[in-house]
Amino acid sequence: MRWLKVTAGLAVPGSVALFYAAFIFAPTEAFMGDVQRLFYIHVATAWNAYLCFAVVLFSGLAYLFRRAPRWDWLGASAAEVGVLFTTATLVSGSIWAKAVWGHWWTWEPRLTLTFITWLMYIGYLILRRSIANPEVRSRTAAVYGVLAFVNIPLVHYSVQWWRSIHPFTIGSGRDALHPDMRTALMIATVAATLLAVTLLGLRQKTAVIEGRLDAGGLAGDGLRG
Question: pTM for the full model?
Answer without folding.
Answer: 0.87
